[in-house]
């Protein structure tokens, strides 16, 4: 299939935010005790300053250009945390792994910047967190699926905030997080070069205006509250 001919190229582009790491860890890293504890179902938002990237030829900068705020931190990714047996796991959807559950340090490795530092990572929690474990189990049902390069709402594959939305469904079958018309355009009304390139390669039109989600908008949902936790302290590699 034509699409898969470009997966390798996309993975190379993704390395702007990735560095090589060992994903074969036999167990997750132990969580470090602190005043405010990370909880199962917490969401990890990965953010970069608006001025961190000046071009729009890779996915992360194209996301910032299309969905970011005019000031402050712009979230380029969201992941689900699971605390199990004093260990921290991450469930998320990325170009590199598709939908996957892996130890926290693999997540850190995935998002290590070229200078060796980690981007800002903010923790947000549902105001009503009673069903968090159920939402995490929902997310696990998606593991093994591919990354949704098409950014469409009606296929089996998932992009990062789509995975969260489709996992956080209440007992009435309703999504906790809303959808809105997707925007792939920059402030000047043009499509960043990355989006033009990507959708040309997969032979699909840019899904401008179709219903969808993005990490920046999701972080502002009223059902979430920011929690003062430095997730980096849970890392085994210090």
Structure explained in plain terms:
The chain has 238 residues and is an alpha+beta fold. It has a single domain, classed as endopeptidase domain like (from Nostoc punctiforme) (endopeptidase fold (from Nostoc punctiforme)), CATH 3.90.1720. It has helices at 7-14, 59-67, 104-110, 132-140, 160-167, 193-201, 215-218; strands at 43-49, 73-84, 87-94, 98-103, 120-126, 180-181, 211-212, 224-227. Strands 4-3-2-1-5-8 form a 6-stranded antiparallel beta sheet. Strands 6-7 form a two-stranded antiparallel ribbon. Mean pLDDT is 83; it is low at 1-29 and 53-57.
Mind sketching the topology for me?
Layout lengths: L6 H8 L28 E7 L9 H9 L5 E12 L2 E8 L3 E6 H7 L9 E7 L5 H9 L19 H8 L12 E2 L11 H9 L9 E2 L2 H4 L5 E4 L11
Helix pairs in contact: 4-5
Key terms:
disordered N terminus, alpha+beta, 6-stranded antiparallel beta sheet, 238 residues, endopeptidase fold (from Nostoc punctiforme)
In short:
By secondary structure, the protein is α+β, with helices and mostly antiparallel strands. The chain has helices at 7-14, 59-67, 104-110, 132-140, 160-167, 193-201, 215-218, and strands at 43-49, 73-84, 87-94, 98-103, 120-126, 180-181, 211-212, 224-227.
């Amino acid at each position: 299939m034509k699409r898969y001919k470009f997966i390798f190229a996309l993975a190379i582009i993704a390395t702007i935010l990735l560095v090589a790491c060992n994903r074969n860890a036999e167990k997750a890293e132990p969580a470090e005790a602190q005043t405010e504890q990370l909880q199962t179902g917490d969401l990890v938002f990965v953010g970069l300053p608006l001025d961190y990237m000046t071009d729009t030829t890779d996915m992360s900068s194209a996301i910032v250009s299309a969905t970011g705020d005019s000031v402050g931190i712009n979230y380029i990714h969201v992941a689900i945390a699971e605390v199990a047996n004093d260990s921290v796991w991450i469930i998320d959807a990325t170009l590199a792994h598709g939908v996957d559950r892996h130890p926290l340090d693999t997540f850190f490795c995935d998002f290590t910047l070229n200078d060796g530092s980690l981007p800002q990572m903010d923790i947000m929690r549902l105001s009503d967190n009673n069903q968090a474990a159920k939402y995490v189990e929902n997310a696990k049902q998606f593991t093994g699926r591919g990354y949704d390069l098409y950014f469409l709402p009606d296929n089996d594959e998932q992009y990062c905030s789509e995975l969260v939305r489709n996992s956080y469904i209440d007992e009435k079958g309703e999504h906790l997080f809303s959808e809105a018309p997707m925007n792939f355009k920059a402030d000047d009304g043009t499509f960043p070069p990355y989006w033009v390139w990507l959708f040309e390669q997969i032979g699909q039109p840019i899904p401008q205006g179709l219903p969808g989600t993005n990490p920046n908008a999701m972080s502002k949902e009223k059902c979430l509250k920011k929690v003062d936790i430095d997730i980096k302290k849970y890392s085994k590699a210090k």
